[in-house]
Amino acid sequence: MKVAVIGGGIIGLTTALQLTRELRNSEITVFASDFNNTVSHVAAGIFRVGSSYSGPTEEITRNWLRDSYAYYDDIRKSHEASFAGVTAISGYLFANSSPETVKNQWMENLVPIYRRVTDEEFQLVEGNWKYGSFFSTLLTECKLHLPWARKKLEENGISLAVKEFNSLRELVPDWNLIMNCTGLGARSLCNDRRLVSMRGQVLKVKAPWIKTFFYGELDTYVIPGFNGTVTLGGSRNFDSENVKLCPHESAAIRERCENLLPGLKKAEVIKEEVGLRPYRANNVRVEVEHIVNGFSKAIVVHNYGHGGYGVCTAPGTAKYAIKLAKEMHKSSIAKL
């Protein structure tokens, strides 16, 4: 079988890696307009989804998260963990608005530890917080993980090609199976009006003394990465296409994070970054269909619209997408 994966971010690369395991005799090519400039590169990469995250059903969503956590945890336990940028991490979530804000239906039964903070732990940060949770999870540093994934694909004989498409039909009849992992690109490629950009801005600072993550309200977060780099965030601007850095937004982010952790005032800013997350109203799209071009047809599996949770849920949606592809392929053969 000839398989084309469209998309060079975390969704596309993870899908391609899993395809090498499940469709061993296939010829696989990954196409992307740019492998080095994707929204995945901006992400802090912490394994945490919001309570509103949703797949087609609760059971499927839980499977996505369970499979994703297991995938990254297997890498964490391997000798490649430092090269792949995957490590264990723990930290705190604080809120004043409601005790529900620090609870999470998806995470509480998934990660090794998820508990209420103690009275002493409230003293770790500034502010008179009413509610708090402590939990352990995983971190995937995309600046390391994406090059590692590309290297693994090339070692497996997978081709990586820079190319843009105006229509998925351009791939028919040359490819039997098309995995559509184009993120925001699916708006035009699939005419998906549910898909909108969710602009986010972050700062990367040098703060090697910070070893745990901290979340406050108003999209305030401090997430340590590799090599002493810490991500300060953030923002969520729906339906914004503006990729220019806003100095006022950076100042506001830094002020909120320093109010939470005053020690950050001495942290040097390394970089400011903007990314457009592919947010899809209602739920992430992982669906299969046939497309036709003349007398030829191909199976297409869509896998996009993860919003701000692409890094942490990529392995689970990839596994589910490949399952749908296999089922459709078997069904097509049975009809012959």
TrEMBL record:
Cofactor(s) the protein needs: FAD
UniProt GO cellular component terms: cytoplasm
Pfam name, any one: DAO
Binding site for D-dopa: 221, 277, 308
Keyword annotations of the record: FAD, Flavoprotein, Oxidoreductase
Keyword flag Flavoprotein: yes
Keyword field contains Flavoprotein: yes
Domain FAD dependent oxidoreductase as annotated: residue spans: 2-322
Listed GO biological process terms: D-amino acid catabolic process
Binding locations of FAD: 182
MF term (GO), any: D-amino-acid oxidase activity
UniProt family annotation: Belongs to the DAMOX/DASOX family.
Name this polypeptide is given: D-aspartate oxidase
Organism: Bombus impatiens
Encoding gene, per UniProt annotation: LOC100748337
